[in-house]
# Entry
Amino acid sequence: MTTYTDRHGATLPLPDAAADARVRSDDRSHVFHSWSAQAAIDPLPVAAGHGSTFWDYDGNAYLDFSSQLVNLNLGHQHPDLVAAIQRQAGRLSTIQPAMANDVRGELARLISEVAPDGFEKVFFTNGGAEANEYAVRMARQSTGRRKVLSMYRSYHGSTSTAISLTGDPRRWANDTADAGAVRFFGPYLYRSPFHAETPEQEAERALAHLEQTIQLEGPQTIAAIIIETVVGTNGVLVPPPGYLPGVRELCDRYGIVYIADEVMVGFGRLGEWFGIDAFGAQPDLLTFAKGVNSGYVPLGGVVISDRIARAFDTMPFAGGLTYSGHPLACAAGVATFEVFRRDGILERVRDLGERVVEPTLRSWVERHPSVGEVRGRGLFWAVELVRDAETREPLVPFNAAGADAAPMVAFAAAARRAGVWPFTHFNRVHIAPPLVIEEEELRRGLRVIDEALAVADEVAAG
# Structure
């Protein structure tokens, strides 16, 4: 029998219809949800979670194939993280950021030790959007310039500057907040805006386009270029060989700060401490959040190169947060490092990605007419669904809603009925389970996705 612990500490069995009704009522009456038309949603009440699985109040189990929002790297209710938070809460629950704190300093040291060489300082934020916001502020203050370049296919957060830099449609209603935002096309070979036919051509042409954008905008006006090391929600777009080193060279040539947004891929998602380690390039500022402590307590930050940090040795940094480096969050972060090293998390991510996920997904391209391309690394993959493999017409239109989105809605519903909670965006399903997922769970989840693709195949065949 599956049980859960309620807010009073009582252990109760599932299903629990009364609790379900109470949670639904409170939520629908009083909670205002993000990115939603409030009357059009019906959020699932979640009762409990453990490892790679969570349960609703009806007792239904769901394999969490999205790690919630690609942040739950060590899974639900990891005992080491829970215990670290409990110990810290019993000793020092909070302290202002102007004072020194042992777990804050220890976590900053641990992060700097796995960051690229020459990154010794960490500024802590409450999450990824703020991390990108403050990285941009550091770039602007240290260069005296204003403009920041970002990709059209990107997501950097929903605070004012971060949403202005975001490329996907969530920006449209919010993109007047920062006049210094300029967008460009990044590499995306499957739908190449540069008519490239090989990864090498895509990298070369994308870099030429970026340099032209720099020149037309005026290099002396550009503070930074911000790039998700692997574009996340907008496609799991893995950069072709040479692209990120080419960005580094352009930044050096024109005196521009290179910001690597690692909010989603940092801390193991690609089988590396930081995703940038896999691509042979070094940024000037590196942002993180999500996986640093699996979101058990909100935490993000900026790892700062020594060159940028020195600019603030005598010039005060104009920024701060009441909860910067919150002790409860940092305690969970320190425990995360301990778990990663003890349990060989990076190694198992690389192994499962190469041995299980990649060959399984590549077989889908041959067997499913709706699968146009699969791409990814580690435990971070995208399956791009199409109506026609020859024309590459997406299964649903860009930014589809209502009836236009029905095929993806039906696919996701089929996966959920079979006990897997998928991550879908536009015409893609993303494979992003917790990094601690057991191999049998991973294979079972992939089988469910495989079977649910029959829904998309029917559309492709029609």
